[in-house]
Each structure stands twice: as C-alpha cells, then as structure tokens.
Design brief:
This protein has seven helices and five strands. Helix content is 46%, strand content 11%. It has helices at 9-14, 21-36, 47-54, 61-67, 79-89, 100-109, 126-139; strands at residues 3-6, 42-46, 72-74, 114-116, 145-147. It is an alpha/beta fold. The relative contact order is 0.20. The two termini are 22 Å apart. The chain has a single domain (3-156), classed as 5'-nuclease (Rossmann fold). Strands 3-2-1-4-5 form a five-stranded parallel sheet.
Length: 157
C-alpha cells in the first residue's frame, strides 16, 4: 500500500467553493479521490499542515481540520530543518522555510511514495522534477512522486 503525504492544498481544495471552472474541476477530482479512493492508500500528514490550516480565519477552516483527523502525523525530525535549508539554498523551493520546502522534506525524509498536492507551481511541476530528483539523490533521500489527486483516480476520470 502506497504511503501518501497529504499536503495543505488537498483539504483546502476539497472545501473550495469558488466558481472558476478550473477550481470546480480540481475540487471534484479531490472529492472523488478522497471519498472513493483514499482507502487504497496509507495516508500521512504533518503538524505543519495542521498549523497551516489553523492559521488565520478562512472559509470551512474547521471542516478542513476535521477532514485530516485520524491521519497519522509524521514527526518533524531534527534533520528536516537541514534538508529544508538545502532546498532553499539550492533553489529547489521558494524561500519560505515553513512552506513547500518543509512538505517536500517531510515526504522525502519519511520515504513517502507520493506527495499529494494541488501546488502545481512549486511541487507538482514537471519542470521541477529533475531538480528535486538531483538534490534528493545527492542528499541520499527518497524521491516521492509529486502528483495531484487527478493522477490517482484511475478509470473514474
């Protein structure tokens, strides 16, 4: 069973009510995967995801947090901050030590098979795949597949 790291954009997209057709499609794909296929995977997340969801006030905040209940939390080991620093210094991720670099470091360090995200600018981006692979290989880290829920829907879509 594949180990899947659930990043912040997944619960956020699940409850997104914007009417842009692209947002509606992402929300529908996220809900379809979450509601019908997540049981095929072992899901994990992290305190940083829960902290992001708890920050400030936004629509469906509590529902997003509740969606993540029961999902195992990956520990933030001491090595994670070093990995994040390397990602930032090598321009693998934007200069936000509590954002995308942290999620990638956690998923890589804990050998997650998949990092599930809708962040297609910095994470699920084909132009970044090679760079992430090179840096993780140099660090001796696992390279998770970084994909969106749509890629896991199989014959549903």
């Amino acid at each position: 069973m594949d180990l899947v790291y659930i990043e912040t954009t997944i619960p956020s997209t699940y409850f997104d009510e914007r009417t842009d057709p692209k947002i509606i499609a992402r929300r529908d794909w996220t809900r379809a995967w979450w509601d019908r296929h997540r049981s095929e995977f072992m899901l994990v997340t992290s305190d940083p995801v829960l902290n992001e969801l708890a920050k400030s006030d936004h629509p469906f905040q509590q529902e997003k947090i509740d969606l993540m209940k029961g999902i195992d939390l990956l520990p933030v080991a001491n090595e994670i901050s070093d990995i994040v620093s390397i990602y930032l210094n090598r321009y693998v991720m934007p200069n936000d030590p509590f954002g995308d670099a942290l999620h990638l470091a956690l998923a890589s360090f804990h050998k997650c098979d998949i990092l599930l995200t809708w962040n297609c600018q910095h994470l699920a981006n084909a132009n970044k795949t090679g760079h992430i692979r090179r840096v993780n290989t140099l660090l001796g880290l696992h390279v998770p597949d970084i994909i969106t829920p749509m890629a896991l829907l199989g014959d549903d879509y």
